[in-house]
């Protein structure tokens, strides 16, 4: 492809993207294909000769798009938002065009310094502790692993990196509602999944601090070494909020690394009315949230903050001869701040988004999403056949279908059927979780281009499909 051909096909591709967004509501939110259906349409062998770009675009439309679940669809209410936005998309295009390897300052000074500035902007926008140091990781799963590896080295005084675990028996603590990335990180870090202690939760599904302290004391008596506690602000299942200040006090008492995972809900700390959740952050050792979840920034982009930068760098730095530079020590070489050596220029799309929306624009969009969720909550409370399962937090509603003329023992099956009918309709996409062993439905109002008509639509679909079941 020549540069002139690229110019022509590039415009065609931008037109395709614009058409996709302008017609996305005509597509079913969740893909309806069967397992193997897309695979069988792709040739068994690659082409020997170049194919026309028009053919590639045609196959995109006919073979790929039918197998896509459309996360940018305004009727997507499942899991958590994986938001894009037009400024972010444009920033991602420029990032791909530059194709820079941003591992150290020398390989692209602007990438390193823009990333440093963006993390300062986020601290200012969210009133986070000024003493924190920030870096962009790819995902919260990576950030969690970085936190637990740092905690491991902090607890062992950086001896495990040198000599391995030996006879050490470390413990990590989190609530029973914590994201599965904690389980995975504990395994990868070599601590062992049997040493991940799941703490009971209270009536709001937040970590029970009394049980946490009892578990720590019991483990110490049995010869274990407490290594880290992971608090969650906004659990994946129900958006439960762990009591960070009380947990922080326990961590200070026992000298344990305290990591806070706010992957989804952390973006809401742009709103002053929710910044009370950041109380106790001054003593937190590490913290993360994902701008790619509710800050309208393309996946992947996870903001990770640490109180002790030296501990972080000492955990991860490796300095072979070919990576030595004259600027070392004068700048941030972010390859030493995490797992990957190779790093994408993720700060650019974040810069585009913040500048295009402005802080007030981001705040306005988030408040609108929360208002949508409040409206759905009111509809549920006013309907005799539905009930809220846990109190609404921000823009997530957790509810279930519970018609009074049906035996409650059948509610789980009814809700599973209802969810399947909604998703198969193509008109909306929701997901489920379990609360106290009961099958319940989650509804998130956070898609970038969500409007009132879409919120009204999802409630209409829920009611209509529930009536069809009976």
Structure notes:
With 470 residues, the protein is of the alpha/beta class. It folds into three domains: 1-30 and 70-83 and 359-470, Aspartate Aminotransferase, domain 1, CATH 3.90.1150; 34-68, no CATH class; 101-344, Type I PLP-dependent aspartate aminotransferase-like (Major domain) (Aspartate Aminotransferase, domain 2). 42% of the residues lie in helices and 12% in strands. It is built from 14 helices and eleven strands. It has helices at 3-23, 53-64, 86-98, 109-126, 140-155, 160-163, 180-188, 209-221, 244-254, 291-294, 309-316, 347-382, 411-425, 452-469; strands spanning 133-137, 170-175, 196-199, 225-232, 257-261, 286-289, 302-306, 386-388, 396-401, 431-435, 438-444. The strands form two sheets. Strands 1-7-6-5-4-2-3 form a seven-stranded mixed sheet, sandwiched between helices. A four-stranded antiparallel sheet has the order 8-9-11-10. Strand 10 (431-435) and strand 11 form a beta hairpin. Helix 3 (86-98) runs antiparallel to helix 12. The radius of gyration is 24 Å and the shape is globular. The model has no long low-confidence stretch (mean pLDDT 93).
């Amino acid at each position: 492809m020549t540069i002139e051909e690229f110019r022509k096909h590039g415009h065609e591709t931008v037109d395709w993207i614009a058409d996709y967004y302008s017609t996305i509501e005509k597509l079913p939110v969740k893909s309806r294909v069967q397992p193997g259906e897309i695979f069988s349409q792709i040739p068994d062998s690659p082409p020997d000769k170049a194919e026309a770009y028009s053919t590639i675009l045609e196959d995109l439309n006919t073979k790929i798009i039918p197998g896509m679940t459309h996360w940018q669809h305004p009727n997507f209410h499942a899991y958590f938002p994986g938001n894009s936005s037009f400024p972010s998309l444009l920033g991602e295009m420029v990032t791909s065009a530059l194709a820079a390897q941003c591992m150290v300052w020398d390989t692209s000074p602007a990438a390193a310094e823009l990333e440093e500035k963006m993390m300062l902007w986020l601290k200012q926008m969210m009133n986070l502790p000024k003493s924190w140091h920030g870096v962009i990781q790819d995902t919260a799963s990576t950030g969690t692993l970085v936190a637990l590896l740092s905690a491991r080295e902090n607890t062992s005084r950086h001896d495990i990196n040198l000599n391995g675990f030996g006879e050490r028996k470390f413990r990590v603590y989190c609530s029973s509602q914590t994201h599965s990335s904690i389980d995975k990180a504990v395994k990868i870090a070599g601590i062992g999944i049997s040493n991940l202690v799941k703490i009971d939760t209270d009536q709001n599904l937040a970590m029970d601090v009394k049980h946490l302290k009892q578990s720590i004391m019991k483990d110490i008596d049995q010869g274990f070494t407490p290594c880290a506690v992971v608090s969650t602000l906004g659990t994946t299942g129900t958006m439960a909020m762990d009591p960070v200040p009380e947990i922080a006090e326990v961590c200070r008492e026992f000298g344990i690394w305290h990591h806070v995972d706010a992957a989804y809900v952390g973006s809401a700390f742009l709103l002053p009315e929710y910044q009370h959740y950041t109380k106790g952050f001054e003593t937190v050792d590490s913290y993360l949230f994902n701008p790619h979840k509710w800050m309208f920034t393309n996946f992947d982009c996870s903001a990770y903050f640490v109180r002790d930068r030296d501990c972080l760098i000492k955990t991860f730095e490796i300095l072979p001869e070919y990576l030595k530079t004259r600027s070392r020590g004068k700048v941030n070489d972010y390859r030493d701040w995490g797992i990957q050596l190779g790093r994408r220029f993720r700060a650019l799309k974040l810069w585009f988004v913040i500048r295009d929306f402005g802080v007030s624009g981001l705040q306005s969009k988030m408040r609108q999403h929360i208002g949508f969720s409040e409206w759905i909550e009111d509809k549920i409370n006013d309907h005799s056949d539905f009930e809220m399962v846990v109190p609404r937090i921000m823009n997530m509603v957790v509810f279930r279908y519970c018609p009074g003329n049906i035996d409650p023992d059948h509610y789980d099956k009814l809700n599973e059927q209802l969810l399947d009918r909604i998703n198969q309709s193509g008109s909306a996409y929701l997901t489920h979780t379990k609360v106290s062993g009961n099958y319940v439905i989650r509804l998130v109002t956070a898609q970038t281009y969500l409007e009132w008509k879409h919120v009204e639509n999802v409630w209409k679909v829920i009611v209509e499909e529930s009536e069809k079941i009976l």
